[in-house]
Backbone:
């Protein structure tokens, strides 16, 4: 049996084991996917255990996506570009880091919004936020504004985004939390890539009422990548009539890409989606 799983802290909320194990079963693959609660201080030891125990690979989630990079043997182009890893594959004893968040984000939006020339406001520039920022640049959004309360992360992401925007011809600027008042009202697409909303009672990451009216461009689209519950941000967006999307589709599509990396097989997306829906309705 080949072992896969997910490293994170905390990890109990993860739905990845549900969807991956359902996919392995339907295709008759001798794989299993397990959750591993890995504290930040234990990350290096946990990564070494992938080789020692012969795991095929693992997903990596909060708070390890950026810190895990230094413990790997090699990064593919997606992980190098973003500077963060969400998928590790053990390939003949070498640990290769990948980032499937960007492709998962874009696939989750298929048929829902055309990103070209949109004015985008992105909250959060951790591992997932940076991957999303790169994906937005490649999609030639009209403008991209990024906010993060951590000034060092904001500065790091500013360099990354400006490089990407230069390559793809995207107008962009990076703001930090105390600059929110300077953000213009003309926002077509708002994305929350922070953990705010994972728990009941979490504060709104931003007030969105001011962004609802965008001239003749129609209603704002609000996307929250938190997937374990309908967040207060999405509830507020629905109250003002905005278009909304939660993080489940991004979870499924980034997971499908990891599945392909580990097994060489196309993931049964429908099976994964139904497994999560069944779990959520219990």
Residues:
């Amino acid at each position: 049996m080949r072992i896969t799983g997910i490293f994170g802290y905390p990890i109990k909320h993860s739905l990845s084991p549900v969807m991956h194990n359902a996919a392995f079963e339907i295709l008759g693959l001798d794989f299993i996917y397990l959750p591993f609660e890995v504290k930040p201080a234990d990350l290096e030891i946990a990564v070494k255990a992938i080789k020692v125990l012969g795991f095929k690979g693992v997903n990596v989630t909060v708070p390890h996506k950026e810190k895990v990079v230094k413990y790997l043997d090699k990064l593919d182009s997606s992980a190098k570009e973003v500077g963060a890893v969400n998928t590790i594959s053990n390939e003949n004893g070498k640990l290769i880091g990948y980032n499937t968040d960007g492709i998962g984000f874009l696939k989750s939006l298929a048929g829902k919004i055309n990103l070209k020339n949109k004015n985008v406001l992105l909250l959060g520039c951790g591992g997932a936020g940076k991957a999303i920022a790169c994906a937005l640049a490649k999609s030639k959004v009209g403008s991209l504004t990024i906010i993060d309360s951590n000034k060092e992360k904001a500065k790091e992401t500013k360099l990354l985004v400006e490089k990407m925007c230069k390559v793809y011809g995207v107008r962009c600027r990076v703001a930090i939390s105390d600059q929110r008042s300077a953000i213009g009202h003309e926002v077509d697409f708002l994305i929350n890539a922070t953990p705010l909303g994972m728990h009941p009672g979490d504060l709104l990451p931003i007030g969105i009422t001011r962004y609802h009216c965008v001239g003749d461009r129609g209603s704002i689209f609000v996307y929250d990548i938190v997937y374990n519950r309908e967040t207060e941000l999405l509830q507020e967006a629905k109250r003002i009539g905005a278009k909304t999307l939660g993080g489940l589709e991004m979870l499924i599509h980034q997971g499908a890409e990891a599945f392909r990396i580990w097994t060489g097989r196309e993931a049964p997306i429908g099976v994964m989606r139904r497994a999560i829906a069944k779990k959520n309705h219990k």
Notes: DSSP finds nine helices and twelve strands in the chain.
